[in-house]
Amino acid sequence: MSVLDALEAGPASLARLVQITGLARPTAHRLAVALERHRMVTRDSQGRFVLGPRLGELSISTGEDRLLTIAHPVLLQLRDLTGESAQLYRRQGNVRVCVAAAERSSGLRDTVPVGSELPMNAGSAAQVLLAWEDPERVHRVLRGAHFTSSTLAQVRRRRWAQSVGEREQGVASVSAPIAGAGGRVIAAVSVSGPTDRLTRSPGRLHAQAVTAAAEKISEAIHGTEQATALRG
């Protein structure tokens, strides 16, 4: 569990695992390799350990993913309120994954299928998922990013992000952070659509709605966590 907890924050080399867990190097290596055999852990393109696909499969099989259950009706409300497609993103290693979406039913729209893997170096959701990360991980992503450290500082200050043409030309988006236990950012909620409709300042149109949706999901998550703790 120490190894899995360490990898929850993202990819880690063996040296980094040793540093985070406090385990002896041979022990950390043995445990990580054993978890890899069971697909609980895998490796990225740089050979670092990352959380594996088996965790996602187990989460789906239980049918009790609280975040998705809570977020679904909020995404529908956000879509109807803004008139734009709404998405929920989680970070997984070097990418962000769309884990839920509520698509605009007609007209020109930005469609992001559930399961899509998008880069962490472009887009408002990437900004949100990166803004509260540790400086070392932020620095690695910023080397090839469409935004800067100043952008992320602004995201932390106002608690929402916007992008215009970062991920795809002609597409704009607004995102806000969803907080889990201890206030840690666990996901980003977004709306996206054509720049012609969202303008060059999409935050001016939809930041309030997106931030309210993120806060609603965060509060509901905290409520279920407290209820679980009381039952325990």
UniProtKB/TrEMBL annotation:
Q: Which Gene3D superfamilies match?
A: 3.30.450.40, Winged helix-like DNA-binding domain superfamily/Winged helix DNA-binding domain
Q: Which parts of the sequence belong to the HTH iclR-type domain?
A: 1-53
Q: Which gene encodes it?
A: ndgR
Q: Which organism is it from?
A: Salinactinospora qingdaonensis
One Pfam family here: HTH_IclR
Q: Which UniProt keywords apply?
A: DNA-binding, Transcription, Transcription regulation
Q: Which PANTHER family does the record cross-reference, listed alphabetically?
A: HELIX-TURN-HELIX TRANSCRIPTIONAL REGULATOR, ICLR FAMILY, TRANSCRIPTIONAL REGULATORY PROTEIN
What is the official name of this protein in its record?
IclR family transcriptional regulator NdgR
Domain IclR-ED as annotated: residue spans: 54-223
Q: Which residues form a coiled coil?
A: none
